[in-house]
Specification:
single chain, mainly alpha, 5 helices, flat
Length: about 90
């Protein structure tokens, strides 16, 4: 007669959404190998010491530091503005 709808468990929902993994192309495999190599701390140390790659590594290191420093400076300035610190010291020292 009038049946109640069956309750679907979360695991069943997740399983129904999964699709077959896409086949990797040769290019994808090469990029994955490159990424795994670049993640290894030993390889990063070697690149930083090897004369032919040292300059490249240092430029990348400086660029990353500049990005992070810019983010930190922005956060500090935002906090100072929100707390009213700049308005408090506008007329001179406290």
């Amino acid at each position: 007669m009038n049946e109640r709808p069956r309750r679907v468990e979360p695991a069943e929902l997740a399983a129904s959404r999964q699709t077959a993994p896409a086949r990797q192309t040769a290019t994808d495999r090469v990029y994955a190998l490159r990424d795994r190599l670049l993640e290894r701390p030993g390889f990063q140390r070697w690149v930083a010491r090897f004369p032919l790659t040292r300059g490249f590594a240092r430029r990348k290191e400086r660029a990353l530091f500049d990005i992070i420093a810019g983010f930190v400076h922005t956060q500090v300035l935002t906090a100072a503005v929100r707390l009213g610190l700049l308005a408090a010291v506008r007329d001179g020292p406290l």
